[in-house]
């Protein structure tokens, strides 16, 4: 018996339903009637032999099998789009200079560059890791073409492409909540995350001492994982082996962190534009596993 082939159009509709939260809004998204969307999902369920939706009141909710298929659907459509890009767009070549702080480089760049290299193998990318404020200056001087930076550290220049909540983070093996003076590890005085952390602690009159200061995220995380201090990180930077700290430990709520894409207006060309568009699309669709509160 022949193995059924998944229909890309049906998978796009499944993604639209998951992203919009309803068949009705998904129908608008994929430019179909609601009846056509319902028919597509019934055919998709027939193809895979599993129920993809269950009723929750008046809402259609993805089943466990539906969630599982959704993961594959996103990957299939991404690969489909990459293949079409490679075959339909003119082959780009050239050199792009991009800057980013080291913590963003570690989290975001491996996936971004792996996908970009598949679609534009002739483009050479040069990477510079510096603090966001320094990157803004290099962009203004035309010494970088693009930069991924913290928006508030750049005088709110650039296009906001991702927003995450800041979290208090500590070692899972050490408890610093009971200390009379909270030890913290943060970036330099110009860092907006540092300002957010100290401002929040000041507002609840929580005594603290900044024991470690470094522009390097690796150095800050090392101090935290050694149990010497706590720090502040965006949600996507909280990985396995870290402990998110909540209000029960007298850690105040923190604001969001906006991540921006900066472009040097004097250096625009089709190669730079292609990487910029790829970065925006990648960070808009980035999924990460948020570690639980402990």
Question: Can you give a write-up of this model?
Answer:
The chain is of the alpha/beta class. It has 3 domains: 8-87, Arc Repressor Mutant, subunit A (Orthogonal Bundle); 92-162 and 258-284, D-Maltodextrin-Binding Protein, domain 2, CATH 3.40.190; 164-256, Periplasmic binding protein-like II (D-Maltodextrin-Binding Protein, domain 2, 3-Layer(aba) Sandwich), CATH 3.40.190. It is built from 9 helices and 11 strands. The chain has helices at 8-20, 23-30, 34-48, 64-88, 102-119, 132-140, 192-203, 217-225, 270-284, and strands spanning 53-56, 59-62, 93-100, 122-129, 146-150, 159-170, 182-186, 208-213, 231-234, 243-245, 256-263. Strands 3, 4, 5, 6, 9, 10 and 11 form a 7-stranded mixed sheet that branches. A two-stranded antiparallel sheet has the order 1-2. A two-stranded parallel sheet has the order 7-8. β3 (93-100), α5 (102-119) and β4 form a beta-alpha-beta unit. α1 crosses α2 and α1 crosses α4 (64-88). The longest helix is centred in the first third of the chain and has 25 residues, at 64-88. The radius of gyration is 23 Å and the shape is globular. 29% of the residues are buried.
